[in-house]
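User: Second chain of the day. Same drill as before.
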Amino acid sequence: MTVKKMLKDSVELSVEDSVEDSVWLSVWHSVADSVWNSVAVSVEVSVQRSVAVSVEDSVHAQMLEYAYDC
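Assistant: Same format as last time:
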């Protein structure tokens, strides 16, 4: 094996590994971002619903107390 062939093989492998790593990282970040966004939206919606129900219950309770006081 000549030095030239060894260098060529080495460069090809290096480029191939680099492209493979880049694609893998890109896919991984895309999937991770998608999952994270989905979880974040789900948590946010859940918290908003919980707060809304809590506020609604509180308002109803106050209205009932007011009705009984009158």
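Residues 29 and 63 are 50 Å apart (CA to CA).

User: Great, on to the next one.
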